[in-house]
Design goal:
Order of helices and strands: HHHH
Distance between the termini: 25 Å
Helix content: 55-70%
Oligomer: single chain
Strand content: under 5%
Length: about 150
């Protein structure tokens, strides 16, 4: 089931990216302010996700079962238990906004659902691996943002 969450994540992220590009006039929205702000938000999402992946170092994996290389609580992980996913969410909604594409927006919602599903597996593994250390971390750091 955990790998099914990963598959749904991959499909929905691909849909977010490629659905807007499937139309003949995909570039027409980019010159408007929504396109510019959407692309800036997309870039911010990529920066957040890339920085978080770098913070993980060798512990980075796309699979729901984390590598056992110590609980990462520094860098962006001080503010979010899942900053890579936060970056993906910011990217997806910003990308859909940039292109004013409803199917991409729907795929963004599916992406969030898949990430929540995947996180439920990851958190169980982390609780097994790190016990009380992870429980304390979970109580003080939000899932995606400091307040959520």
């Amino acid at each position: 089931m955990a790998n099914l969450a990963l598959l749904l994540q991959t499909i929905s992220l691909s849909a977010v990216i490629f659905l807007p590009l499937a139309s003949d006039d995909w570039y027409s929205h980019l010159s408007r302010s929504n396109g510019i702000f959407g692309l800036l938000g997309s870039a911010l999402g990529l920066i957040i996700g890339g920085t978080a992946a770098t913070n993980l170092g060798n512990a980075f994996t796309i699979f729901p079962k984390p590598k056992r290389q110590g609980l990462k609580t520094e860098g962006l992980y001080r503010f979010s238990r899942n900053p890579i996913y936060t970056g993906l969410i910011v990217f997806a909604f910003s990308w859909a906004h940039a292109f004013q594409n409803i199917p991409s927006l729907i795929a963004s919602v599916v992406l969030v659902i898949s990430l929540l599903w995947k996180v439920s597996f990851e958190e169980r593994y982390l609780a097994q691996f790190y016990g009380d250390q992870y429980s304390r971390y979970k109580k003080t750091v939000g899932r995606f943002t400091p307040w959520f």
